[in-house]
Amino acid sequence: MNDVLKQFVFQELVQVSDPKKFSDDEDxxxxxxxxMGIMRLVVFIEETFGVTLPDDEIEPDNLQSLNRIISWIxxxxx
Amino acid sequence: xxxxxxxxxHFTLMxxxxxxxxxxxxxxxxxxxxxxxAIDIAWLQMRVxxxxxxxxxxxxxxxxxxxxxxxxxxxxxxxxxxxxxxxTDSSSALTxxxxxxxxxxxxxxxxxxxxxxxxxxxGAYFMLxxxxxxCDAKGAELIMHHLLKDEVxxxxxxxxxxxxxxxxxxxxxAMGIQAKRHINHLDRIDSSLPKVEPVIADQLxxxxxxxxxxxxxxxxxxxxxxxxxxxxxxxxIGCMMxxxxxxxCDEKQGFCVPYAMxxxxxxxxxxxxxxxxxxxxAQASLQQVANRALLFSELRxxxxxxxxxxxxxxxxxxxEAGAWLPLHKYGRIIRKGPKGEERSSFWFSYTGESDPKVxxxxxxxxxxxxxxxxxxxxxxxxxxxxxxxxxxxxxxNYIGSQIDQQWMEQLIATxxxxxxxxxxx
Lengths: 78, 425
Fold this sequence. Notes:
The complex is a heterodimer of chains A (78) and B (425).
Chain A: H1 2-13, H2 28-31, H3 35-49, H4 60-63, H5 66-77
Helix pairs in contact in A: 1-3
Chain B: E1 2-4, H1 7-21, E2 28-35, H2 41-54, E3 60-65, E4 68-73, E5 82-86, H3 90-101, E6 113-119, E7 124-131, H4 137-148, H5 159-165, H6 169-186, E8 204-210, H7 213-227, H8 232-247, E9 254-262, E10 277-285, H9 286-289, H10 292-308, H11 311-322, H12 327-335, E11 347-353, E12 360-361, E13 364-373, E14 381-388, E15 391-399, H13 405-420
Parallel strand pairs in B: 5-6, 11-14
Antiparallel strand pairs in B: 1-4, 2-7, 2-13, 3-4, 6-7, 8-15, 9-10, 12-13, 14-15
Helix pairs in contact in B: 1-11, 1-12, 6-11, 7-8, 8-10, 8-13
């Protein structure tokens, strides 16, 4: 899941000099993930991982880093 | 050698035609930087020369061949892209800037980019005026970055072409139909428009409101609270809809606002040129606009449905087909509903925090930045929201002869009160 998510984020949404060096805890919002990007990301996650992410949970705490996004997805998978 | 305009460039060229038909100069836009001191003109001229030698594709002219339009390399003196103006104070400098954005040039001879320094007794304005078919607002920010810095560009596929290359013919046809249905659906609600005097359009005027960092922060927090993390642009659109309704406008059944979506990756320094955008619409009925909570929930839901159903990019194949039409036919289809009425209640753009940030130009500190854009008549009004160093700037662009100044003042004050959320639902 991590690799698929990373690939989407760095290929489609955010430009960083070296995605391999971007840690899973680094701040994606600081790195440039914007409001339009968040919407595309949520749709991608729902379609790819078959989960429904509630709108009222679209907040910085769940989107700050790759690890937080993964935890968020995991919470809705189980 | 001729280089074809991309699909979105062609869209903005069509808007150039429509703006000229309205009686204005054409689809010219600007980024304007306010500087705290005068700058070294020779250095700036040298940077312009260096920029054009690194990006010769920025020194082109439009050429029509058959039905299509192309960029043709221009071999003229690159110093002709740099202009030096003088003004006594800020007020007269803004008058110079107004004259520059309204300067008329035939589309075929229009400079794609022009760099204007307006020197005052203390301080200066530096203005990048661009002909919209050459690039979008994010591209203009990138031009400024590459004008001032010798950054090595990472190679990469043009994101807009990359997106288009993913689709086969049948996929494009299906998406085009989907987009057409979407537009037909939008046309079920007649759009309200600003109050416009029935006189000939003369020229673009503008009023700039720069908010301080605390007020800006409060507005962005309010936006997140009411429109969610994905709805910052929608918050500004919704507040403008409500302000128009409150001050009084040519009221119909609702409001409809087109806005552009940047296809580049955030933080990407490439590509500078070519419009790398798709388009979305925000629409709300009068009843929804009258109720803040209902309005933002409707706009959010609409945005979500748009992205989920792929409509955020479905307009691209429709634009691709439109590029084969004569400009006036293309313009009619894009702008007008079935009864010939204007679809756009106003023009809107939100570019977020200036990025990459231009902190100084030739050792002169940048104190602020605003944007300008010509508009068609109707709707004769555009709101461009940008952010520099945490401070929001609202740039109200309107047609001077058609929009009443007092009405405009009321609208600006009402937009501000809507943004701060001071207004009860």
